[in-house]
Design a protein that fits this description.
Length: 344
Amino acid sequence: MKIQDFDFDLPAELIAQFPAEQRSSSRMLHLHGTSGDMQDTVFADLPSFLRAGDVMVLNDTRVIKARLWGMKDSGGKVEVMVERVLDGHCVLAVIRSSHAPKLGTQLMLAGALTVTVLDRENDFYTLRFEHPSTVSELLERYGSLPLPPYIGRPVTQFDEDRYQTVYAQHAGAVAAPTAGLHFDEAMLESIRAMGVVTVQVTLHVGAGTFQPVRVENIADHKMHREVFHVPVETVTAIRDAKAVGGRVLAVGTTTLRALESAAAANDGELQPGYGDTDIFITPGYRLRVVERLLTNFHLPRSTLLMLVATFAGLDHIQRAYQHAINQHYRFFSYGDVMLIERQS
């Protein structure tokens, strides 16, 4: 397939710069992947689409304060975006500067942290923090929350709360699993009270989630790698639900990618799993685990748009996105949400 199949024109005013006033007050577009039928509704109505025995899977990753600013030893300005914490003192990061730093040089970040450039592979550098405290402690103290590039404003204290899910637990993401941002505690309690089982996976979202595909033929695209974990309890809950006709709802494309990665590693059978994934889900991919997907509206030419097109059918997604634009839905991380039934 060609990249043009996943392009669309989006008015700038529809890119949400702030979240809805209340987490659960967003709009929700319900799309049936087989018929293509659409229904305009609101996220607060989500429980009416669920029933006892269903399983809802959440990505419990937590966004780290991954962005740091500073200077090269030559005096030039740099911006460092941590992609992954490798151990207590080393990270994989993207560096933005007028000239790429040479290996062995040092950076001074946040006016307090000496960092040595150890290695480079493509766009990513391996950096070592020369400090007795751990990287995680230093990022929490000196780093800034990495809002997406299309949010054109400084980070506020409000973002410290609202750019994390209420169930965020395991630190490691540099972008939020945004479908989960719509849930508040009251919504989760209401869903559980119905008899819907909620379980977790972890997928640490990387900065590559915001990168457009730049090749003409999407089969030539190389996916970024992300760490995922699918625990035993989640696999058991999904198996039990499917045995009695329950449906699996993945909250977010990252949740779906974690589940499909665990299944792909075991010849299509969902098993507990931990490791790196670079799974690339495009039309033609056979989805094995999830019947329903809750997801925000995604960037043009993005791998996530390709994933939802796989889930619901490209024609249906194209129509749904045009409908959302016509009806002035809010797009991207702080925007509105879709509930998609998988195409049969």
